[in-house]
Amino acid sequence: MRFEAAVGSETGNRYAANFDVAHLRTDPLLAVVADGMGDSPGSALAGRATVDTVVAGLVGEITPRLIRKVVAQTQERVTEIGRQDVGLAGCTLTALAGDENGLWVVQVGDSRVYRLRGRLLELLTVDHTMAWLGAVHGWYPFDSAEARAARYQLTRYVGHPGRPEADVLNILPATGDVYLLCTDGIAEQVEYAGIANALATRPPEQAVRELLAAADAAGGHDNATAIVISAEP
């Protein structure tokens, strides 16, 4: 199986700069997105350090032990950045890495991985936010003011003083699968049906353009980054 993929990112209207960081290669597959928290220099440094650490560390055979080691290294690097006078240093980390054992999903924060298989679009990751906990446990309506505020309360992120671990998931790709890694600038602005329709578009470059255009049409309220990967025979 081979992978076709594309990546794109836009600043949007909220920030003067783009604090999302992305990396993509297809052989072997490694896709990474990090979304900096806020608009400080520490945010930019955290995202860049996190992606660079993951790209350098996730090589060869991918194992849960290796993934946890690399995530711990990102926590160390970003924590060190946070000790400098750079403002808040923190970011999300979402990655999809491939080897002979399938695909490995790595998740810290509220960026996301989706999979379109046939006509079913599934979310493969969990948002590490109080909003997610509130929605699951019925603390408040999903579209309430409380839920909107809770979306900014991350329970796990790179740079967190508790140095939380990542969620790690192993999946087997099937021919025709389409995967999306995205920051919340996509997930919070593009509705489920819009994501599904975009991922059904070929090639991946066109799907990325459609997702970014949809985020912009929704107001462009955040940096928006998308990586689309299709599994080919």
Structure description:
The protein has 233 residues and is α+β, with helices and mostly antiparallel strands. It has a single domain (2-232), classed as PPM-type phosphatase domain (Phosphatase 2c, domain 1, 4-Layer Sandwich). 33% of the residues lie in helices and 28% in strands. It contains 7 helices and 10 strands. The chain has helices at 41-57, 64-82, 130-137, 145-150, 184-187, 192-199, 204-217; strands at 2-10, 20-26, 29-35, 93-99, 102-108, 112-117, 120-123, 167-171, 178-182, 224-232. The strands form 2 sheets. The protein has a 5-stranded antiparallel sheet. A 5-stranded antiparallel sheet has the order 2-3-4-5-8, covered by helices on one side. A hairpin with a 2-residue loop joins strand 4 (93-99) and strand 5 (102-108). Helix 1 (41-57) runs antiparallel to helix 2 (64-82) and helix 6 packs antiparallel against helix 7 (204-217). The longest helix is centred in the first third of the chain and has 19 residues, at 64-82. The N and C termini lie close together (5 Å).
